[in-house]
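Sample entry (570 residues):
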Amino acid sequence: MEVRHFAPGVPRTYYDKPMTTPVAKRAPFTACKHILCALGVALVGVTHAHGQCPAQVPAEGAALRGAAPLFPATNWWNHDISAAPVDPSSASFIAFIDNGGTRRLHPDFGGEAAPGSTAVYGMPYAVVGGTQPKVAVTFDYRDESDGVDANGAGVPFYPLPAQAIGEPHWVEGGAPASVDQRSQSDRHLIVVDCARRHLYELYNVWHDAASGRWYAGSGAFFDMTKDERRPDGWTSADAAGLAILPGLVRFDEAWNPEVTDIGHAFRVTMRATNGYVYPASHRAGSTPGALPMGARLRLKAAVAGADPALRSADPNIRRIFRAMQKHGLIVADNGADLYVTGTFDVRWDNDILNPAFALLKASDFDVVALGWKPAALANAVADLAVTPATVTGGTGALGTVTLAAPAPAGGATVALASATVAVTVPPTLVVAATATTGTFAVATAPVAATTATTLAATYGGITKTVTLVVTPTAPALAAWTVAPATVRAGATAVAVVTLAAAAPAGGVTVTLASSNAAVASVPAAVIVPEGRSTVPVRVTTRATRRAAAVTLTAGLAGSARTAVITVTVR
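Predicted structure, serialized as tokens:
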């Protein structure tokens, strides 16, 4: 899909309004079990080749991969910046932020503005399944938006849930998308396809009920299994050209006692910016002395001999502060100085968040060298794939491991694992020296019911997973009969499909066909229900000028059986 640049000299600017967040009482945290627990793989640093979905989709604010960062460990949001050099102009940048006073940190997130209110604080997001219908969106900044054709017209691309049109709390600000508040706030709509781990983000969204069309300022797509930066000069749904979701403070990681490292940087806004540096790709201002989009701030390890992360006694707040020391804040939008963005979640308690964040001020931070990139990362697993993704029990598949860099001399030994006995893989795979990929055989056993199995590959401290679906072996087609074998035109007959054994879970689909449907017709297919071995099929006949013999065919797994019905003149 072609996406073009818009005319130069038209900067993209956002303005987030300062706010004072009220109390949003949180619910008790419930630890969830991770899919890799069955594999004995540690949670920290684990990434998935395929996502996990909540029981019901679409869902607003459903948990996303527990405590794991949403993008690969190599993504700029997840870099460890604790040893990165300080920018020579750090003190000047901090002075600009202070603006002659003392700027303090503020949590730009919370719950409902009042219990049961439409208005919310923080960034909502929606989780949808892989079958969510996709819709077209008409953009203001179409030349830098995804989901448009060569002429800039929107095409069906964004899996936007219908609930967002009329229900509150799906769009930033809280009002439904059908309420046009584009002139009042940024109105972001963030959607995660949990089946494919795809991220869709829209800025300044509105749904016009009269025309049934979606409108937005801009839109961006991100594959959360990859590190794909926007081209230089391009925007996204955020002013810096970055994805928004991976930089949000999320309750499921911040208030999780099992998490030792949140694992990613946080999105932060400034009242003004000046250009952009890596990892940002887009400017939204040129104010002298201001930080550029993409700049990183890091909470100091010590201020006046004391660790600022320990200013709060709350272990959850400390967890957030530690992430600011290890992963930092990334300037991603224009707004209020030092406003850190998080998710809308009614479990947040701003009686805890607001005073805790206010314990940190601008001078507690250093500005990391502008445009900093880490030294070459140690080689690790970049991707794990299996082909085909669905097989019949007893047949095989092919797994492929891709490394982030060529394997060293002597090769790279990748550990492999399967979560069920229905699927077996070798214990290890050696990727040859200088190669970046290697393949391995996947064997499956016959199963009684459809079984989804997680395969894992680990190397360089990184684990990637993929799901292989194993389906039961369908019983053979034993017989296909029709009675009576001769009928008058207009009468009906009954054909019977018979399997060699009872159908497994999910049933068995048998295809049907007629050599002359104008005289005698059958459905295109019939399903033999689970636990049954036979199913009747209605044969409909029609008027004919002369007697006709019609061949009816039933097919299953490459085999076919036929039966002949003779239709006579009335």
